[in-house]
Design a protein that fits this description.
single chain, alpha/beta, Rossmann fold, six-stranded mixed β-sheet, four-stranded antiparallel β-sheet, 9 helices, 10 strands, globular
Length: about 230
Amino acid sequence: MLEVANVDLHYGAAIALRQVSITAETGAVTCLLGRNGVGKTSLLRAVVGAHPITRGTIRWEGHDITRLPMYERARRGIAWVPQGRDVFPLLTVRENLETGFAVLPRGQRKLPEEIFDLFPVLKTMLRRRGGDLSGGQQQQLAIARALVMKPRLIVLDEPTEGIQPSIIKDIGRVIALLRASGRMAILLVEQYFDFAQELAQTIAVMDRGDIVLSGRREDLDEAEVRRRLSV
């Protein structure tokens, strides 16, 4: 389990997170919802170690990882798919996938066939450069690259942003399959309630750096969640 407890995070004098607490369990999807600029990405950056927190604790699999650098968290099975995908545009699809080998022992550095079962289009594009792929294909590549790391926690920052509806359905299907495998916890940031409602067991809604609603999907008032997501 991931346990984030009473976390504050600052950018200089500006506070981005205030006393934020959230959990993510293996075999389940925890979805973080909220409008733009409310702190969702800041929370993910805190979890993966991309930005230090001011106070609070972050625990993963029973261990305090609050002060661990990002690469050590990756070695402990935490994979991040950032907003905007961040594929390497001049590397081929195969080379992009192989960057996930960095945290694996040499004996495990092989592209698993499961990746291509989940994303068949990538198998046909292994020699194409990442920058030549469409936005939806780049998003699939970014998720696949994270899965090459054999994560036990995968952190997804708005994987549906700017993606065509057919690819959104494919990504939703993959997240559902990963959840059903029972091998990893999934922490998902989204703006779209309908997508979250289909996939998440637990939903938390953020506003101005705070979590203002949270609970099991079936226990939350849908109208209240949608109201807090509206501009």
